[in-house]
Design brief:
Blueprint lengths: L16 E12 L5 E7 L7 E5 L4 H14 L2 E6 L7 E8 L5
Parallel strand pairs: 3-5
Antiparallel strand pairs: 1-2, 1-4, 2-3, 4-5
Amino acid sequence: MENTNQSQRLVPINDLQWFDCAVDGAGPGEDGTIWVRLTSTDGEFTEVWFTALPAIRQQVLETALAALQSQLVCGVGLTGTSDDSQIYRIQAFAPKIR
């Protein structure tokens, strides 16, 4: 039987790709995986589903839902831009007041 308590090998922070994104959807999968659909504000990718790094899945879900509800832009650190990539960092930003 596979040991599910082994820690996942992490991607170094310098290897992450960073984007400002709109959150188009978010929620849990049947296996507890958290899925977040993102669109980059620079047009690099549109409506791609990413999974959350397991160690921060609850915080990713909370941040993504808050951003979705309030239509905030998020800064995200991703392992890539395809649908098999993971979210390693996510921060929601309030609109700038001018």
